[in-house]
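Justification of computing resources. Each target in the renewal requires a structure prediction run like the one illustrated here; the chain below, 209 residues long, is used simply to show the kind of job we budget for.
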Amino acid sequence: MDVLLAEVEQYYTRKIDTYGATPLGVDWACVPTQQMRFVQLLKFCNFDSPVTLNDLGCGYGALLAFLSKRFRGKAINYLGIDLSPAMIAQAQKLWGKRRETKFVVASNSPRIADYSIASGIFNVKLTQTDDLWTQFVATTLANMHATSRRGFAVNFLTPLPEGVIGITELYRPPSELWSNYCQKRFGATVEILNSYGMREYTLLIRKTT
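Resulting structure tokens:
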């Protein structure tokens, strides 16, 4: 697993070093689609009262710009977690003076929060085998469950049509695979969002206890 994490860290560090604090810097195409993904991931969050939020794979902190615009004035204690020290350095530069905001270089959250989200961290498996990547996803979901009081949200790329050969470095599991896993493993309720015009789907995992 250490080799896997090291490869992922190096991949995203190269991206941020090349493109800076932009969507391309986190391997995403543009701001509108990046924000559309944020809309889906946050649909299960209730910001009517103060909340704590973990952002796993936070990159340069793009979610904070979205939160500041969409949920202006809401009390959100935010922790950004990322494997890449270069990503966290960019995030600190942009958001380090923001109240109730911290960042840490890590593979998992060091604290328990009300909600946790992970945007795109499962999509690019690079040279890793499917078996090892599946183990990585399962371990990460278990950690998100353990560090979230109310629930957590993640997304995956949609499988390609039968007969279509895609990029081998991308991970495209059927939605039932991880939806059923979270229901059975965590006793959670899972909502699948897949009608927002992007070739991916989002899982909203709500804890029942």
